């Protein structure tokens, strides 16, 4: 019977398997390193891309902030212009009011009354003058009340000073400037009220 020694073959086979295992282990480690490197590179690219987008967004935000500041400045200028326009429109509307006021003062003043001073504060006026008697001042107040451009005559002071014997009474009178209702306004209000009642 022949004997075959299998020990060297087994030893070689074991060495071969060990070498294959080490090669496979090295290949796996290399693949793992490459995969990790690829993942790191991928996420680094994402971070870089997002950083560039953030920089672009910040630049756009700065540009929008500048535009918003310009819009706010334009809004302020618009408000200033509108307020000036309103003042001009008010002045144009009240331009003839002084003419009507002086006309009414001349037409309503009775004999025996003389005005010495007129002071205005907005739509309120203060008239200072002298009169022959209290009755003349009362008559003047009634005339002012009947006027369409003057309302709420209010006698502040009347006293006998005696400086001028022909007109011994000094008085101070407060009035308010108003705009009379025109016939067109009255008719328009009447039509509106009749239309609303239907």
Biggest sheet: strand arrangement: 1-2-4-3
CATH superfamily of the domain at 97-180: General secretion pathway protein M, EpsM
Report the β-strand fraction as a percent range: 15-25%
CATH class of the domain at 97-180: Alpha Beta
Radius of gyration: 51 Å
CATH architecture title of the domain at 97-180 = 2-Layer Sandwich
Our measurement of the CA-to-CA distance between the termini, rounded to an integer number of angstroms, reads 137 Å
Q: Would you give the CATH topology of the domain at 97-180?
A: Gyrase A, domain 2
* Contiguous runs where pLDDT drops below 50 for at least 5 residues: 183-198
Structural class: alpha+beta
What is the total tally of β strands? Answer: 4
Overview of the structural elements:
It contains four helices and four strands, in the order ααββαββα. Among the domains are: about 55-95; about 95-180, General secretion pathway protein M, EpsM (Gyrase A, domain 2), CATH 3.30.1360. It has helices spanning about 5-95, 95-110, 135-145, 185-195; strands at about 115-120, 125-130, 150-160, 170-175. By secondary structure, the protein is an alpha+beta fold. The protein starts with 6 loop residues before the first helix and ends with a helix. Residues about 185-198 have low confidence and may be disordered. Helices cover about 65% and strands about 20% of the residues.
């Amino acid at each position: 019977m022949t004997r075959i020694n299998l020990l060297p073959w087994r030893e070689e086979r074991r060495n071969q398997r060990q070498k294959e295992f080490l090669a496979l282990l090295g290949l796996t480690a290399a693949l793992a390193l490459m995969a990790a490197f690829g993942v790191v590179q991928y996420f680094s690219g994402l971070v870089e891309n997002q950083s560039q987008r953030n920089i672009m967004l910040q630049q756009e935000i700065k540009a929008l902030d500048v535009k918003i500041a310009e819009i706010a400045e334009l809004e302020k200028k618009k408000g200033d212009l509108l307020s000036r326009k309103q003042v001009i429109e008010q002045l144009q509307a009240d331009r003839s009011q002084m003419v009507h006021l002086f006309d009414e003062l001349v037409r309503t003043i009775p004999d025996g009354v003389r005005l010495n001073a007129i002071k205005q504060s907005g739509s309120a006026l203060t008239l200072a003058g002298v009169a022959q008697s209290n009755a003349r001042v009362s008559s003047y107040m009634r005339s002012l009340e009947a006027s369409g451009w003057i309302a709420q005559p209010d006698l502040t002071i009347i006293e006998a000073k005696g400086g001028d014997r022909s007109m011994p009474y000094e008085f101070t009178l407060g009035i308010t400037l108003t705009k009379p209702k025109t016939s067109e306004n009255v008719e328009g209000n009447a039509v509106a009220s009749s239309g609303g009642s239907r």
